[in-house]
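Q: Sequence in, structure out?
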Amino acid sequence: MNTPTSSPAAPPDQGAASTSSPLPRIAVLATGGTIAGAAPDATNTSGYQAGVVGVEQLLSVVPALSTVARIAPEQVASVDSKDMAMSLWTTLAQRVNALLAADEIDGVVITHGTDTLEETAYLLHLTVKSDKPVVLTAAMRPASALSADGPLNLLNAVTVAGHAASRGQGVLVAFNNRIHSARDVVKTSTYAVDAFHSPEIGALGWVQDGRVEYQRAVVRPHTLGTGFTIGAAWQHVEVVASYAGVSRIAVDALVAAGVRGIVVAGTGNGSIHASMQQALADAASQGIAVVRSSRVGSGHVMRNGAAADDALGFVSAGSLNPYKARVLLMLALAAGVTGPAALQKTFDTY
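A: Exactly. Output:
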């Protein structure tokens, strides 16, 4: 990592370089992923190895970065994000908080794999303790590919992180010229470079050719507005899915394994097959937190819309998908939030 030596910098106007003040100092933390992937030839966009290109090489192919920020690079990990682990989440969140506490750092960009990017982003959205910008970015094509999308995404992410309007917006995702809130964004394609969207309410804004523009602001509490921290023991929470003919076997096995919480990816408005619903009700009666989400991909789960939540002891995830609901439930349980009423208030808040 380059050691910061400069005083705090004013963000450039609309992301362009300023001639009257130093450029912002942005820490770029690399974790691996497709953006750092390499394949045998330039036409291969699926048979590649993720996380093999180091952060210095990623930065070297984007010389325009020097016109928008002073970069402090650091290699935090080199993983395929499908293998993201709680231990790495802990390391990453603690490192981001340490960097943002330094006056010399004006923002953080994280390069990440696309598979679990939305989960990592939401975790940081709830646990970063600073109003300085944190921006995640990624790529759908490896660094070795013809028309690789990583370099422009990286340039745009650094531009967003250095922009004054990004401060106080929580954790952001810059991808394919759009700026998304970590709470809203989801991966929607297995192959397209336009793979990330905020399907329910849309992107926050856009970034192009050095210009950053926000169309709306984040409303729900985040970062400094939450009581969640990294450091407590991770709570065991798993995800199950409801579908035609599902049995109660998976739920019963998880209960026997000692889980603290279960998130169900229900059909439609979070509805659950009768067999699984009974198993989940039995789990809730034993003090296991049960959260109803939906496998649909957009929309929100209405409380009591699919079942008598109060009678069964279930919690509605609202507009959070099952995987983000799991993140919030783990953090809530670690913070000592228990019982359906308290957990429902938490889901309604964040």
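The two ends are 34 Å apart (CA to CA).
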